[in-house]
Amino acid sequence: MNKHINTYQKRAGWTILAIGGAFAFYNFLVFGLPDGTHKNGSEFLGLAVLFIAAGAVVLNAKKRPHWWLLTISALPILYFSSAALAFILSPLTWIRVNEYPVAMMILLLRVLLYIVIVIYLLRVFIKLRKNIKRGVQEPSPTKKQLVQFITTIVLILALPLLFLVTAKTAEVLKSADPSHGKTNEIKQFLSKKYNQSFEITNFKTEKQYTSGFTSWDRLIATAHPASNDQIIFEVRGCVARCDSNGANWHDDYVRKAWAYEITPEISQEVEKIYGKKLDVEVSTGLTLDARNSMSEDELVAFDQARRYAFVNVSVSEAGHFTTDNIVDIERKSRQLADYLSGYGAGSFRLSFNKKDPREVPASVYSVVPFASPDLQSKVRCAEHIKIDSSNIEKVRRSANLKGFFSKTCGYKTEQASAGSVVRATYPE
User: Is 228 exposed, middle or buried (0-12, 13-18, 19+ CB in 10 A)?
Assistant: First the structure.
């Protein structure tokens, strides 16, 4: 380190480093350690990197440390300033004061802290510039400087504490009312739309981005008819910073009700063809071409919507394709495809899957996005034979289904999911 660095420059450098450390601590507290997935990153981690870089430069720069400080701190200054202005000028701020006074008071303290940090950075820039122009070596700390130093330390210690209180308050508010007060509104929306009662069983909130600088909060509710808890579906709508992207409630009850209606019939046919019970998943909905002919929100029996609907059937069992079973599976899959082709739906898609329960080789991780060490044990692979209404005639003419064979690997957790098509070898 440059031994001619004056006392103020050294103290400022360590202070800025400590601010960066506080942001890093807060990011770890709320999001955990970065693990290569988007879920553990935030603007606080970016601010931590910038502040640590700025502090290191101020400590070690021999020439023009003030300009280096201003260059690296430009983004945090802009971020803090825009956050403060957005908080002060947004009409939602003053609307929410009445709903969540404690939370808004904590947010106000956080904004004030942002303002203090901006003022401090600008003050450091001005004072470093003056000291360099004067070419004066500052004396040892005086009583006034000692008070300033202690105040700075208290501020640094208060930063993670304030962030911790903010996070805990948000957590308490969320756990106290995860529905954002929308339970009755959603029930009324559904009962008016479908003329029956519904129960809401779960809520979660997702942030949706319309651009790099604007976002809105989407509430996802899990619901089912009061008379049938087997038809589980989602209702989605905006609950904060709403605009045309998410202002209205949307649900997929009709698609789930249709799937529930036809699943027993299709499962029975699958068991008849394959000679055993298999894992069958059925999904349905309106084809794109049919949406002008019929509303997807119109609750009618599937038979009335059959010619407008698509039907997706996924049949799965553990294991993998081999030369011993491929011919038999292909023959039976053709039978099931013929059955679905004559089912009367607007279109169909069939996927027969062999799911390998074993952990996959390390070489696969690189082709599965975000497959970091803590997710590698969750990565699984499956082989597929896929037939749909667009290629059924080609399937009927083919000697084997090698051209319809594929393999995928991926994982799914509550926080994230990803998958990739990987190279597959057809057993022959």
Answer: exposed
Q: What is the mean pLDDT of residues 377-396?
A: 91
Q: How far apart are the C-alpha atoms of 104 and 381, rounded to whole Å?
A: 47
| Calpha distance 311→303 (Å, rounded) | 13
Q: Under a CB-based contact definition with an 8 Å cutoff, are residues 263 and 235 in contact?
A: no
CA angle 22, 24, 28 (to 5 degrees): 115
Please provide the size of the chain in residues.
428
* Four-CA torsion 7, 11, 13, 16, nearest 10 degrees: -160
Q: What are the residue ranges spanned by the domains of the chain?
A: 7-176, 183-250, 254-422
Better-scored residue on pLDDT, 278 or 420: 278
User: Two tokens at 65?
Assistant: 């440390």
Measured from the Cβ of residue 300, the count of other Cβ atoms closer than 10 Å reads 13
Structure token pair of residue 217: 């909060």
Inter-residue contact 210 to 245 (CB < 8 Å): yes
The pLDDT-based confidence of 48 (bands split at 50, 70, 90) is confident
Whether the predicted model's global pTM rises above the 0.85 cut = no
d(CA 324, CA 330): 12
Q: Does domain 183-250 have CATH number 3.10.450?
A: yes
Confidence of residue 202 (pLDDT cuts 50, 70, 90): confident
**What does DSSP say about strands 233-240 and 215-225: parallel, antiparallel, or unpaired?**
antiparallel
> If pLDDT is split at 50, 70 and 90, which confidence band does 34 have?
very low
Instruction: Give 284's Cβ-side CA count (13 Å radius).
Output: 29
Q: Which two tokens stand for residue 182?
A: 């929308």
**The pair of three-digit structure tokens given for residue 215, joined into one six-digit string:** 């976002």
Average pLDDT over residues 165-184: 61
Token reading at 311: 């039907």
Question: 395, 349 in Cβ contact below 8 A?
Answer: no
What is the C-alpha separation between 220 and 313, in angstroms, rounded?
Answer: 25
Q: What is d(CA 110, CA 167) in angstroms, rounded to the nearest whole number?
A: 11
| CB atoms near residue 42 (< 10 Å) | 16
What is the rounded radius of gyration, in angstroms, for the C-alpha atoms of the chain? 30
Q: Give the Cβ contact number of residue 72 at 10 Å.
A: 21
Q: Which residues 6+ apart lie within 8 Å of 89 measured at CB?
A: none
Who wins on pLDDT, 183 or 403? 403
